Amino acid sequence: MIGGSAVEHTTGLSREVLFGLYRQMVQIRRCEEQLARAHAAGLIPGACHTYVGEEAVAAGVCAHLRPEDSIFSTHRGHGHALAKGVPPRALIAELFGRATGCSRGRGGSMHLFAPEVGLLGTSGIVGPSILLAVGAAYGYRILRQDRVSVAFFGDGASNNGAFHEGVNLAVIWKLPVLFVCENNQYATEVPFATVAGNPNIAERGRAYGISSQRLDGNDVIAVYAAAGEAVRRARAGEGPTLLECLTYRTRPHSEGMRDVGYRTREEIEAWRARCPIKTLRARLLADGLATEAELDRIEAEIQGAIDEAVAFATNSPWPDPTTAAAHVYSQEEGPCAS
Ligand SMILES: Cc1ncc(C[n+]2csc(CCOP(=O)(O)OP(=O)(O)O)c2C)c(N)n1
Ligand SMILES: [Mg+2]
């Protein structure tokens, strides 16, 4: 969680919070760019869906969460993992298939787990994050625990039955859950507008009676504000919230896939110009909250940490082949015991 400080500025947020958001978005971006290069170099087996362009959503939501709060994510989950506290070295090592990865090298890009920081899983299946988060929230309710859960999912997943079942159940039971839809306007290469009778997902939520908001998902301050209120409501027992964050992935659906054809170069460029990191940077500078040198220093620091994480992953051992059958069934010592 990013703490507050006494100093308030024109954004309504403290410098500490704003710098924390900036730092997190840069960390995700630099890590994703590194992973894209590594994938092109053949160092990452399997698919690799990056989160470039969508960083404000994970950063703005997870800034409000405690380690004991849980998140459930998708095939595009690197950013969520980092924002919830998975160290870059554990993420990169996982994608490199190494034993030091957060899933011990057995999950890869789409199956990241780090229960110690509340990442209860990313998934290659579209939709289940919604129901898993509802289940976790129901558990917190039964156990009377002061915890919230978050489901991240895409516009495509909102056409899955899980969305309709999950949202309805959360509403009638007033569960402490946030549904964070990252509407990046495409499911793989299918424009959402062509597969939705009503492409306004927040309106769909309202039809179920859930408090819903559609917002600029590339404006981290807007996401932070909306998520703060949603988390407050969840903790206060006021029920779930649906946030439809309008955003865009500026890289292909998955690394190595085509970039245009189903969308235009002009559209991509227009969204690149609305980069959430550039936008926050410009705002911090315009408001006199940061200098170019300070922000450059943060970027250099983060690049250094990512370079160190890549070296760590590269030098890490592969999983021991004799343990190939481990972790298939849960064991008495816990699901992660060897
Ligand atoms: C149940 C299921 N159906 C189809 C797929 C194939 N698939 C993988 S990603 C994807 C698109 C998902 O789109 P969206 O939910 O908008 O997420 P985005 O990739 O845009 O972040 C599809 C259809 C899948 N993995 N799981
Ligand atoms: Mg999508």
Question: What features would you describe in this structure?
Answer:
The protein has 338 residues and is an alpha/beta fold. It has a single domain, classed as 3-Layer(aba) Sandwich (Rossmann fold), CATH 3.40.50. It has 11 helices and 7 strands. The strands form 2 sheets. A 5-stranded parallel β-sheet has the order 1-2-3-7-6, sandwiched between helices. The protein has a two-stranded antiparallel ribbon with strand order 4-5. Mean pLDDT is 95; it is low at 1-8. It binds thiamine diphosphate and magnesium ion (MG). Magnesium ion binds at residues 154-156, 184, 186-187.
Question: How would the blueprint of this fold be written?
Answer:
Blueprint: H1 15-40, H2 55-62, E1 70-72, H3 78-84, H4 88-95, H5 128-142, E2 149-154, H6 161-172, E3 177-183, E4 186-187, E5 190-191, H7 201-207, E6 211-216, H8 220-235, E7 241-246, H9 265-273, H10 276-286, H11 292-314
Parallel strand pairs: 1-2, 2-3, 3-7, 6-7
Antiparallel strand pairs: 4-5
Bound molecules: thiamine diphosphate and magnesium ion.
Task: Summarize, please.
The protein is α/β, with parallel strands linked by helices and 338 residues long. It contains 11 helices and 7 strands.
Query: How large, in whole angstroms, is the Cα Rg?
Result: 19 Å
- Overall strand count: 7
Strand arrangement in the largest pleated sheet? 1-2-3-7-6
Small molecules (ligands, ions, cofactors) in the structure: thiamine diphosphate, magnesium ion
Overall residue-averaged pLDDT value: 95
Looking at the overall shape, the CATH architecture is 3-Layer(aba) Sandwich
Helix-and-strand structural type: alpha/beta
Number of domains: 1
CATH superfamily: Thiamin diphosphate (ThDP)-binding fold, Pyr/PP domains
Q: What's the number of helices?
A: 11
CATH class: Alpha Beta
Strand content: 5-15%
Secondary-structure element pattern, one letter each? HHEHHHEHEEEHEHEHHH
**How many angstroms separate the termini?**
31 Å
Unreliable spans: 1-8
* CATH topology group: Rossmann fold
Largest sheet: 5 strands, parallel
Please tell me what the overall shape is.
globular
Q: How much helical structure, as a percent, in the residues?
A: 40-55%
